Amino acid sequence: xxxxxxxxxxxxxxxxxxxxxxxxxxxxxxxxxxxxxxxxxxxxxxxxxxxxxxxxxxxxxxxxxxxxxxxxxxxxxxxxxxxxxxxxxxxxxxxxxxxxxxxxxxxxxxxxxxxxxxxxxxxxxxxxxxxxxxxxxxxxxxxxxxxxxxxxxxxxxxxxxxxxxxxxxxxxxxxxxxxxxxxxxxxxxxxxxxxxxxxxxxxxxxxxxxxxxxxxxxxxxxxxxxxxxxxxxxxxxxxxxxxxxxxxxxxxxxxxxxxxxxxxxxxxxxxxxxxxxxxxxxxxxxxxxxxxxxxxxxxxxxxxxxxxxxxxxxxxxxxxxxxxxxxxxxxxxxxxxxxxxxxxxxxxxxxxxxxxxxxxxxxxxxxxxxxxxxxxxxxxxxxxxxxxxxxxxxxxxxxxxxxxxxxxxxxxxxxxxxxxxxxxxxxxxxxxxxxxxxxxxxxxxxxxxxxxxxxxxxxxxxxxxxxxxxxxxxxxxxxxxxxxxxxxxxxxxxxxxxxxxxxxx
Length: 505
Description:
The structure is a single chain. This protein is α+β, with helices and mostly antiparallel strands. Helix content is 37%, strand content 17%. It has helices spanning 2-17, 23-36, 56-68, 77-89, 95-108, 111-124, 130-133, 161-169, 239-251, 321-336, 409-412, 421-435, 443-446, 449-456, 466-485, 492-502, and strands at 137-143, 146-152, 202-206, 209-215, 225-229, 256-258, 275-279, 290-294, 303-307, 314-318, 348-351, 354-357, 359-368, 372-381, 415-418. It has a ten-stranded antiparallel beta sheet.
Protein backbone atom coordinates (compact mmCIF):
# COMPACT_ATOMS: atom_id res chain seq x y z
CA UNK A 1 0.00 0.00 0.00
CA UNK A 2 2.76 2.41 0.96
CA UNK A 3 4.54 1.63 -2.31
CA UNK A 4 1.38 2.51 -4.26
CA UNK A 5 0.88 5.75 -2.34
CA UNK A 6 4.45 6.82 -3.14
CA UNK A 7 3.95 6.04 -6.82
CA UNK A 8 0.86 8.25 -6.78
CA UNK A 9 2.87 11.13 -5.33
CA UNK A 10 5.58 10.65 -7.93
CA UNK A 11 2.94 10.78 -10.67
CA UNK A 12 1.51 13.96 -9.17
CA UNK A 13 5.02 15.46 -9.14
CA UNK A 14 5.43 14.54 -12.83
CA UNK A 15 2.04 16.04 -13.67
CA UNK A 16 2.88 19.33 -11.95
CA UNK A 17 6.26 19.53 -13.67
CA UNK A 18 4.62 19.08 -17.08
CA UNK A 19 1.74 21.47 -16.33
CA UNK A 20 -0.90 18.81 -16.70
CA UNK A 21 -2.39 20.10 -13.45
CA UNK A 22 -1.90 23.08 -11.14
CA UNK A 23 -1.13 23.12 -7.41
CA UNK A 24 -4.80 23.19 -6.40
CA UNK A 25 -5.68 20.49 -8.91
CA UNK A 26 -3.17 18.18 -7.20
CA UNK A 27 -5.51 17.81 -4.19
CA UNK A 28 -8.34 16.62 -6.41
CA UNK A 29 -6.06 14.36 -8.43
CA UNK A 30 -4.57 12.80 -5.30
CA UNK A 31 -8.00 11.99 -3.87
CA UNK A 32 -9.18 10.60 -7.19
CA UNK A 33 -6.18 8.27 -7.41
CA UNK A 34 -6.45 7.20 -3.77
CA UNK A 35 -10.06 6.24 -4.43
CA UNK A 36 -9.15 4.43 -7.65
CA UNK A 37 -6.55 2.31 -5.86
CA UNK A 38 -8.63 1.79 -2.70
CA UNK A 39 -6.25 3.66 -0.38
CA UNK A 40 -7.39 5.58 2.69
CA UNK A 41 -4.22 7.61 3.26
CA UNK A 42 -1.71 9.35 1.00
CA UNK A 43 2.04 8.98 1.23
CA UNK A 44 3.18 10.97 4.27
CA UNK A 45 6.94 11.11 3.77
CA UNK A 46 9.08 12.98 1.28
CA UNK A 47 9.06 12.33 -2.43
CA UNK A 48 12.39 11.97 -4.23
CA UNK A 49 12.91 14.71 -6.77
CA UNK A 50 13.05 13.36 -10.31
CA UNK A 51 12.50 14.74 -13.79
CA UNK A 52 10.97 12.28 -16.21
CA UNK A 53 10.18 13.04 -19.85
CA UNK A 54 7.29 10.57 -19.89
CA UNK A 55 5.42 8.79 -17.08
CA UNK A 56 5.90 5.29 -18.47
CA UNK A 57 7.98 3.87 -15.60
CA UNK A 58 5.47 5.15 -13.03
CA UNK A 59 2.47 3.88 -14.97
CA UNK A 60 3.99 0.44 -15.46
CA UNK A 61 4.52 0.09 -11.71
CA UNK A 62 1.01 1.35 -10.90
CA UNK A 63 -0.52 -0.96 -13.50
CA UNK A 64 1.34 -3.98 -12.13
CA UNK A 65 0.14 -3.08 -8.65
CA UNK A 66 -3.46 -2.61 -9.81
CA UNK A 67 -3.47 -5.97 -11.61
CA UNK A 68 -1.99 -7.74 -8.57
CA UNK A 69 -4.82 -6.39 -6.44
CA UNK A 70 -7.52 -7.33 -8.94
CA UNK A 71 -8.49 -3.83 -10.09
CA UNK A 72 -8.44 -5.13 -13.67
CA UNK A 73 -7.64 -8.42 -15.41
CA UNK A 74 -3.90 -8.22 -15.98
CA UNK A 75 -4.00 -11.03 -18.53
CA UNK A 76 -5.92 -8.86 -21.02
CA UNK A 77 -3.62 -6.25 -22.63
CA UNK A 78 -6.57 -4.13 -23.77
CA UNK A 79 -7.77 -3.76 -20.19
CA UNK A 80 -4.27 -2.76 -19.07
CA UNK A 81 -4.21 0.01 -21.68
CA UNK A 82 -7.67 1.17 -20.62
CA UNK A 83 -6.75 1.25 -16.93
CA UNK A 84 -3.67 3.28 -17.80
CA UNK A 85 -5.88 5.90 -19.47
CA UNK A 86 -8.02 5.93 -16.33
CA UNK A 87 -4.98 6.69 -14.17
CA UNK A 88 -3.80 9.51 -16.42
CA UNK A 89 -7.33 10.86 -16.68
CA UNK A 90 -7.02 11.86 -13.02
CA UNK A 91 -4.12 14.23 -13.77
CA UNK A 92 -5.40 15.80 -16.98
CA UNK A 93 -6.63 19.37 -17.48
CA UNK A 94 -10.28 19.78 -18.39
CA UNK A 95 -11.07 19.82 -22.09
CA UNK A 96 -12.09 23.49 -21.94
CA UNK A 97 -8.81 24.40 -20.21
CA UNK A 98 -6.82 22.74 -22.98
CA UNK A 99 -8.80 24.58 -25.65
CA UNK A 100 -8.37 27.95 -23.92
CA UNK A 101 -4.62 27.46 -23.45
CA UNK A 102 -4.19 26.44 -27.08
CA UNK A 103 -6.05 29.48 -28.36
CA UNK A 104 -4.24 31.87 -26.03
CA UNK A 105 -0.89 30.60 -27.27
CA UNK A 106 -2.03 30.79 -30.87
CA UNK A 107 -3.06 34.43 -30.42
CA UNK A 108 -0.03 35.56 -28.40
CA UNK A 109 2.89 33.39 -29.53
CA UNK A 110 1.74 31.96 -32.85
CA UNK A 111 0.39 28.71 -34.14
CA UNK A 112 3.68 26.79 -33.80
CA UNK A 113 3.74 27.53 -30.06
CA UNK A 114 0.12 26.38 -29.78
CA UNK A 115 0.68 23.06 -31.55
CA UNK A 116 3.93 22.57 -29.63
CA UNK A 117 2.05 22.94 -26.34
CA UNK A 118 -0.72 20.59 -27.40
CA UNK A 119 1.64 17.95 -28.78
CA UNK A 120 3.70 18.09 -25.59
CA UNK A 121 0.53 17.66 -23.52
CA UNK A 122 -0.40 14.53 -25.47
CA UNK A 123 3.07 13.07 -24.89
CA UNK A 124 3.15 13.93 -21.19
CA UNK A 125 -0.31 12.40 -20.69
CA UNK A 126 0.89 9.19 -22.39
CA UNK A 127 -1.92 9.54 -24.90
CA UNK A 128 0.90 9.44 -27.42
CA UNK A 129 2.59 6.24 -26.36
CA UNK A 130 6.22 7.11 -26.97
CA UNK A 131 7.59 3.98 -25.29
CA UNK A 132 5.57 1.80 -27.65
CA UNK A 133 6.34 3.95 -30.67
CA UNK A 134 10.06 3.63 -30.00
CA UNK A 135 9.74 -0.10 -30.72
CA UNK A 136 8.80 0.56 -34.37
CA UNK A 137 11.40 -0.54 -36.92
CA UNK A 138 12.25 2.14 -39.49
CA UNK A 139 14.59 2.50 -42.44
CA UNK A 140 14.87 4.45 -45.69
CA UNK A 141 14.90 2.98 -49.17
CA UNK A 142 16.55 5.06 -51.93
CA UNK A 143 15.02 4.28 -55.31
CA UNK A 144 14.42 5.80 -58.73
CA UNK A 145 11.63 7.95 -57.27
CA UNK A 146 13.83 9.33 -54.51
CA UNK A 147 13.63 8.26 -50.90
CA UNK A 148 10.88 6.03 -49.50
CA UNK A 149 10.39 5.50 -45.76
CA UNK A 150 9.61 2.05 -44.39
CA UNK A 151 8.07 1.39 -40.96
CA UNK A 152 7.12 -1.89 -39.37
CA UNK A 153 4.39 -0.72 -37.05
CA UNK A 154 4.63 -2.26 -33.58
CA UNK A 155 2.58 0.38 -31.78
CA UNK A 156 -0.71 -1.44 -31.90
CA UNK A 157 -0.34 -4.75 -30.06
CA UNK A 158 -1.96 -7.70 -31.76
CA UNK A 159 -5.03 -9.08 -30.05
CA UNK A 160 -4.45 -12.06 -27.80
CA UNK A 161 -6.89 -15.01 -27.61
CA UNK A 162 -8.37 -13.88 -24.28
CA UNK A 163 -9.12 -10.42 -25.65
CA UNK A 164 -10.77 -11.92 -28.72
CA UNK A 165 -12.87 -14.20 -26.52
CA UNK A 166 -13.97 -11.28 -24.32
CA UNK A 167 -14.83 -9.18 -27.37
CA UNK A 168 -17.32 -11.84 -28.47
CA UNK A 169 -19.13 -11.46 -25.16
CA UNK A 170 -19.48 -7.69 -25.44
CA UNK A 171 -23.02 -6.41 -26.00
CA UNK A 172 -23.65 -4.43 -29.14
CA UNK A 173 -22.82 -0.78 -28.59
CA UNK A 174 -23.23 2.35 -30.68
CA UNK A 175 -21.52 4.83 -28.38
CA UNK A 176 -19.23 6.39 -29.37
CA UNK A 177 -20.29 6.01 -32.99
CA UNK A 178 -16.66 5.64 -34.09
CA UNK A 179 -13.13 6.28 -32.80
CA UNK A 180 -13.10 9.81 -34.22
CA UNK A 181 -16.30 11.19 -32.71
CA UNK A 182 -16.03 14.04 -30.22
CA UNK A 183 -17.72 11.83 -27.59
CA UNK A 184 -14.47 9.88 -27.24
CA UNK A 185 -13.06 12.56 -24.92
CA UNK A 186 -13.00 11.07 -21.44
CA UNK A 187 -14.62 7.78 -22.50
CA UNK A 188 -13.80 4.90 -20.16
CA UNK A 189 -13.47 2.35 -22.94
CA UNK A 190 -14.28 -1.33 -23.08
CA UNK A 191 -12.38 -4.43 -24.10
CA UNK A 192 -13.11 -3.77 -27.79
CA UNK A 193 -12.87 0.03 -27.67
CA UNK A 194 -9.98 2.11 -26.30
CA UNK A 195 -10.32 4.24 -23.20
CA UNK A 196 -9.87 7.95 -23.77
CA UNK A 197 -9.77 9.58 -20.30
CA UNK A 198 -6.40 11.10 -21.23
CA UNK A 199 -7.62 12.27 -24.63
CA UNK A 200 -7.98 15.97 -25.48
CA UNK A 201 -8.85 17.87 -28.66
CA UNK A 202 -8.91 21.52 -29.66
CA UNK A 203 -11.79 23.05 -31.64
CA UNK A 204 -11.22 24.62 -35.03
CA UNK A 205 -13.38 26.47 -37.51
CA UNK A 206 -12.98 25.37 -41.12
CA UNK A 207 -15.11 27.14 -43.69
CA UNK A 208 -17.52 28.24 -40.98
CA UNK A 209 -17.98 24.72 -39.58
CA UNK A 210 -16.80 23.17 -36.30
CA UNK A 211 -13.92 20.74 -36.61
CA UNK A 212 -11.38 19.46 -34.09
CA UNK A 213 -7.64 18.86 -34.00
CA UNK A 214 -6.20 15.87 -32.19
CA UNK A 215 -3.00 13.88 -32.38
CA UNK A 216 -2.76 10.23 -33.26
CA UNK A 217 -1.93 8.08 -30.22
CA UNK A 218 0.39 6.03 -32.44
CA UNK A 219 2.18 8.78 -34.33
CA UNK A 220 3.73 7.58 -37.60
CA UNK A 221 5.66 10.84 -38.04
CA UNK A 222 6.29 14.13 -36.22
CA UNK A 223 3.10 15.74 -34.88
CA UNK A 224 0.88 13.24 -36.69
CA UNK A 225 -2.49 14.92 -36.33
CA UNK A 226 -6.08 14.11 -37.20
CA UNK A 227 -8.52 16.87 -38.11
CA UNK A 228 -12.09 15.64 -37.84
CA UNK A 229 -15.55 17.07 -38.39
CA UNK A 230 -17.96 17.59 -35.53
CA UNK A 231 -20.70 15.74 -37.38
CA UNK A 232 -20.44 11.98 -37.71
CA UNK A 233 -20.77 11.82 -41.48
CA UNK A 234 -18.91 9.61 -43.97
CA UNK A 235 -15.78 10.57 -45.87
CA UNK A 236 -16.46 12.70 -48.93
CA UNK A 237 -14.19 14.23 -51.56
CA UNK A 238 -16.00 17.26 -52.97
CA UNK A 239 -15.02 20.82 -53.94
CA UNK A 240 -15.86 21.68 -50.32
CA UNK A 241 -13.10 19.29 -49.21
CA UNK A 242 -10.50 21.38 -51.02
CA UNK A 243 -11.81 24.57 -49.40
CA UNK A 244 -11.50 22.95 -45.96
CA UNK A 245 -7.96 21.71 -46.64
CA UNK A 246 -6.87 25.18 -47.74
CA UNK A 247 -8.50 26.78 -44.71
CA UNK A 248 -6.62 24.39 -42.42
CA UNK A 249 -3.20 24.87 -44.06
CA UNK A 250 -3.73 28.64 -44.13
CA UNK A 251 -4.26 28.52 -40.37
CA UNK A 252 -1.48 25.93 -39.84
CA UNK A 253 1.10 26.70 -42.56
CA UNK A 254 3.73 24.49 -40.88
CA UNK A 255 1.53 21.40 -41.34
CA UNK A 256 1.01 19.18 -44.34
CA UNK A 257 -2.62 18.07 -44.54
CA UNK A 258 -4.44 15.60 -46.75
CA UNK A 259 -7.45 13.37 -47.00
CA UNK A 260 -7.93 9.71 -47.59
CA UNK A 261 -10.11 8.93 -50.55
CA UNK A 262 -13.81 8.34 -49.99
CA UNK A 263 -14.21 4.90 -51.56
CA UNK A 264 -13.42 1.41 -50.24
CA UNK A 265 -10.08 -0.17 -51.25
CA UNK A 266 -8.46 3.16 -52.14
CA UNK A 267 -9.57 4.85 -48.91
CA UNK A 268 -8.15 4.58 -45.43
CA UNK A 269 -9.28 2.54 -42.46
CA UNK A 270 -12.03 4.89 -41.24
CA UNK A 271 -14.51 5.84 -43.98
CA UNK A 272 -17.40 6.48 -41.57
CA UNK A 273 -16.23 9.89 -40.29
CA UNK A 274 -14.99 12.84 -42.32
CA UNK A 275 -11.41 13.65 -41.35
CA UNK A 276 -8.00 14.73 -42.58
CA UNK A 277 -4.50 13.73 -41.49
CA UNK A 278 -1.40 15.85 -41.35
CA UNK A 279 1.57 16.92 -39.34
CA UNK A 280 4.79 18.89 -39.17
CA UNK A 281 6.68 16.62 -41.50
CA UNK A 282 8.29 16.65 -44.94
CA UNK A 283 7.05 13.50 -46.67
CA UNK A 284 9.13 11.85 -49.42
CA UNK A 285 6.50 12.76 -52.01
CA UNK A 286 7.18 16.45 -51.47
CA UNK A 287 10.70 16.04 -52.91
CA UNK A 288 9.53 14.28 -56.08
CA UNK A 289 10.99 15.73 -59.29
CA UNK A 290 8.89 17.45 -61.95
CA UNK A 291 8.25 15.46 -65.13
CA UNK A 292 6.08 17.71 -67.31
CA UNK A 293 4.67 21.20 -66.79
CA UNK A 294 1.30 22.40 -68.05
CA UNK A 295 -0.58 25.66 -68.18
CA UNK A 296 -4.31 25.78 -67.74
CA UNK A 297 -5.52 29.04 -69.36
CA UNK A 298 -8.49 29.36 -67.03
CA UNK A 299 -6.13 29.41 -64.04
CA UNK A 300 -3.24 31.65 -65.18
CA UNK A 301 -1.67 32.19 -61.76
CA UNK A 302 -0.96 28.56 -60.94
CA UNK A 303 1.43 26.00 -62.41
CA UNK A 304 0.41 22.41 -63.07
CA UNK A 305 2.80 19.50 -63.43
CA UNK A 306 3.18 15.75 -63.21
CA UNK A 307 5.89 14.37 -60.93
CA UNK A 308 8.30 11.43 -60.87
CA UNK A 309 6.37 9.35 -58.37
CA UNK A 310 5.09 5.75 -58.40
CA UNK A 311 1.50 6.82 -57.74
CA UNK A 312 0.09 8.94 -60.60
CA UNK A 313 -0.05 12.54 -59.34
CA UNK A 314 -1.05 15.96 -60.64
CA UNK A 315 0.69 18.77 -58.74
CA UNK A 316 -0.64 22.34 -58.77
CA UNK A 317 1.31 25.21 -57.19
CA UNK A 318 0.66 28.88 -56.59
CA UNK A 319 -0.30 31.56 -54.09
CA UNK A 320 -3.86 32.06 -55.31
CA UNK A 321 -5.89 29.66 -53.16
CA UNK A 322 -9.11 30.37 -55.07
CA UNK A 323 -7.55 29.33 -58.40
CA UNK A 324 -6.04 26.19 -56.89
CA UNK A 325 -9.39 25.24 -55.34
CA UNK A 326 -11.10 25.90 -58.66
CA UNK A 327 -8.60 23.74 -60.55
CA UNK A 328 -8.92 20.93 -57.99
CA UNK A 329 -12.70 20.99 -58.31
CA UNK A 330 -12.42 20.85 -62.08
CA UNK A 331 -10.00 17.91 -61.97
CA UNK A 332 -12.25 16.06 -59.52
CA UNK A 333 -15.36 16.66 -61.63
CA UNK A 334 -13.55 15.45 -64.75
CA UNK A 335 -12.07 12.38 -63.07
CA UNK A 336 -15.33 11.29 -61.40
CA UNK A 337 -16.89 10.57 -64.80
CA UNK A 338 -13.73 9.73 -66.76
CA UNK A 339 -13.31 6.31 -68.39
CA UNK A 340 -10.49 4.89 -70.48
CA UNK A 341 -11.01 1.19 -71.06
CA UNK A 342 -7.58 0.92 -72.69
CA UNK A 343 -6.06 1.91 -69.33
CA UNK A 344 -8.49 -0.28 -67.28
CA UNK A 345 -10.25 2.83 -65.96
CA UNK A 346 -14.04 2.79 -65.77
CA UNK A 347 -15.79 5.58 -63.88
CA UNK A 348 -18.61 3.25 -62.85
CA UNK A 349 -19.99 -0.23 -63.35
CA UNK A 350 -23.42 -1.72 -62.81
CA UNK A 351 -23.78 -3.93 -59.76
CA UNK A 352 -27.14 -5.47 -58.90
CA UNK A 353 -28.81 -3.05 -61.27
CA UNK A 354 -27.28 0.06 -59.72
CA UNK A 355 -24.29 2.15 -60.82
CA UNK A 356 -21.23 1.84 -58.57
CA UNK A 357 -18.72 4.72 -58.79
CA UNK A 358 -15.00 3.90 -58.95
CA UNK A 359 -13.13 7.19 -59.42
CA UNK A 360 -12.05 9.59 -56.69
CA UNK A 361 -8.90 11.48 -55.64
CA UNK A 362 -6.51 11.61 -52.71
CA UNK A 363 -5.68 15.31 -52.10
CA UNK A 364 -2.56 16.49 -50.22
CA UNK A 365 -1.67 20.10 -49.43
CA UNK A 366 1.31 21.90 -47.91
CA UNK A 367 2.69 25.42 -48.01
CA UNK A 368 6.13 26.19 -49.40
CA UNK A 369 7.79 29.58 -48.89
CA UNK A 370 9.06 29.66 -52.49
CA UNK A 371 6.18 28.00 -54.37
CA UNK A 372 3.20 28.99 -52.24
CA UNK A 373 0.56 26.32 -51.82
CA UNK A 374 1.52 22.92 -53.22
CA UNK A 375 -1.51 20.74 -53.93
CA UNK A 376 -1.02 17.11 -54.94
CA UNK A 377 -4.05 15.44 -56.50
CA UNK A 378 -3.78 11.67 -56.85
CA UNK A 379 -6.41 10.02 -59.10
CA UNK A 380 -7.65 6.76 -57.58
CA UNK A 381 -9.81 3.93 -58.95
CA UNK A 382 -11.16 1.01 -56.90
CA UNK A 383 -12.50 -1.28 -59.62
CA UNK A 384 -12.03 -5.04 -59.16
CA UNK A 385 -11.85 -7.85 -61.73
CA UNK A 386 -11.58 -11.62 -61.67
CA UNK A 387 -7.84 -11.23 -62.21
CA UNK A 388 -7.55 -8.62 -59.44
CA UNK A 389 -10.36 -9.32 -56.95
CA UNK A 390 -8.77 -7.06 -54.31
CA UNK A 391 -8.54 -4.19 -56.79
CA UNK A 392 -6.80 -3.47 -60.09
CA UNK A 393 -4.99 -0.52 -58.50
CA UNK A 394 -4.26 -2.25 -55.22
CA UNK A 395 -1.23 -4.30 -54.13
CA UNK A 396 -1.36 -7.43 -56.27
CA UNK A 397 -1.32 -10.87 -54.72
CA UNK A 398 2.31 -11.65 -55.48
CA UNK A 399 3.33 -8.99 -52.92
CA UNK A 400 0.64 -9.65 -50.29
CA UNK A 401 3.26 -11.45 -48.22
CA UNK A 402 4.61 -7.94 -47.49
CA UNK A 403 1.56 -5.69 -47.88
CA UNK A 404 -2.06 -6.47 -48.67
CA UNK A 405 -3.80 -3.66 -46.78
CA UNK A 406 -5.32 -0.57 -48.41
CA UNK A 407 -2.96 2.10 -49.69
CA UNK A 408 -4.18 5.28 -48.06
CA UNK A 409 -2.98 8.82 -47.67
CA UNK A 410 0.16 8.22 -45.60
CA UNK A 411 1.52 5.57 -47.93
CA UNK A 412 0.67 7.56 -51.04
CA UNK A 413 3.03 10.20 -49.58
CA UNK A 414 5.85 7.64 -49.46
CA UNK A 415 5.71 6.34 -45.89
CA UNK A 416 5.07 2.60 -45.66
CA UNK A 417 3.19 1.32 -42.64
CA UNK A 418 3.81 -2.41 -42.67
CA UNK A 419 2.20 -4.97 -40.34
CA UNK A 420 3.85 -6.01 -37.07
CA UNK A 421 4.13 -9.66 -38.21
CA UNK A 422 7.00 -8.65 -40.49
CA UNK A 423 9.37 -7.97 -37.61
CA UNK A 424 9.65 -11.66 -36.84
CA UNK A 425 9.10 -12.89 -40.39
CA UNK A 426 11.74 -10.73 -42.09
CA UNK A 427 14.27 -11.56 -39.37
CA UNK A 428 13.56 -15.25 -39.95
CA UNK A 429 14.00 -14.81 -43.73
CA UNK A 430 17.36 -13.12 -43.14
CA UNK A 431 18.50 -15.90 -40.80
CA UNK A 432 17.45 -18.59 -43.29
CA UNK A 433 19.21 -16.89 -46.19
CA UNK A 434 22.39 -16.47 -44.16
CA UNK A 435 22.31 -20.11 -43.06
CA UNK A 436 21.25 -21.49 -46.45
CA UNK A 437 18.15 -23.05 -44.83
CA UNK A 438 15.01 -24.17 -46.63
CA UNK A 439 12.67 -21.18 -46.61
CA UNK A 440 9.67 -23.42 -47.19
CA UNK A 441 10.20 -25.50 -44.07
CA UNK A 442 9.10 -22.77 -41.61
CA UNK A 443 5.72 -21.13 -41.23
CA UNK A 444 7.48 -17.80 -40.67
CA UNK A 445 9.32 -17.88 -43.99
CA UNK A 446 7.25 -20.07 -46.34
CA UNK A 447 5.05 -17.21 -47.60
CA UNK A 448 8.21 -15.23 -48.42
CA UNK A 449 10.08 -18.07 -50.14
CA UNK A 450 9.39 -17.18 -53.79
CA UNK A 451 10.32 -13.57 -53.16
CA UNK A 452 13.51 -14.32 -51.20
CA UNK A 453 14.69 -16.97 -53.66
CA UNK A 454 14.14 -14.46 -56.44
CA UNK A 455 16.63 -11.92 -55.09
CA UNK A 456 19.06 -14.06 -53.09
CA UNK A 457 21.18 -14.87 -56.16
CA UNK A 458 21.96 -11.17 -56.61
CA UNK A 459 23.94 -10.97 -53.36
CA UNK A 460 26.66 -12.63 -51.35
CA UNK A 461 24.63 -13.05 -48.18
CA UNK A 462 26.26 -13.36 -44.77
CA UNK A 463 24.99 -13.26 -41.22
CA UNK A 464 26.22 -9.67 -41.02
CA UNK A 465 24.45 -8.29 -44.10
CA UNK A 466 21.39 -10.55 -44.44
CA UNK A 467 18.91 -8.31 -42.64
CA UNK A 468 20.10 -5.21 -44.50
CA UNK A 469 19.54 -7.01 -47.80
CA UNK A 470 16.08 -8.18 -46.76
CA UNK A 471 15.13 -4.65 -45.69
CA UNK A 472 16.43 -3.23 -48.98
CA UNK A 473 14.33 -5.72 -50.95
CA UNK A 474 11.33 -4.92 -48.75
CA UNK A 475 11.74 -1.28 -49.76
CA UNK A 476 11.70 -2.36 -53.40
CA UNK A 477 8.43 -4.19 -52.76
CA UNK A 478 6.92 -1.04 -51.26
CA UNK A 479 7.87 0.86 -54.41
CA UNK A 480 6.02 -1.85 -56.36
CA UNK A 481 3.04 -1.52 -54.00
CA UNK A 482 2.80 2.16 -54.88
CA UNK A 483 3.21 1.41 -58.59
CA UNK A 484 0.31 -1.04 -58.36
CA UNK A 485 -1.81 1.67 -56.68
CA UNK A 486 -1.06 4.20 -59.42
CA UNK A 487 -3.74 4.35 -62.10
CA UNK A 488 -1.21 5.30 -64.79
CA UNK A 489 1.92 3.19 -65.09
CA UNK A 490 5.35 4.56 -65.82
CA UNK A 491 5.43 3.08 -69.30
CA UNK A 492 5.01 4.76 -72.71
CA UNK A 493 1.42 3.50 -72.79
CA UNK A 494 0.80 4.75 -69.25
CA UNK A 495 2.20 8.19 -70.00
CA UNK A 496 0.01 8.45 -73.10
CA UNK A 497 -3.06 7.45 -71.11
CA UNK A 498 -2.22 10.00 -68.39
CA UNK A 499 -1.87 12.70 -71.07
CA UNK A 500 -5.28 11.79 -72.48
CA UNK A 501 -6.81 12.49 -69.07
CA UNK A 502 -4.85 15.72 -68.55
CA UNK A 503 -6.06 17.01 -71.91
CA UNK A 504 -9.64 16.58 -70.67
CA UNK A 505 -9.27 18.78 -67.59
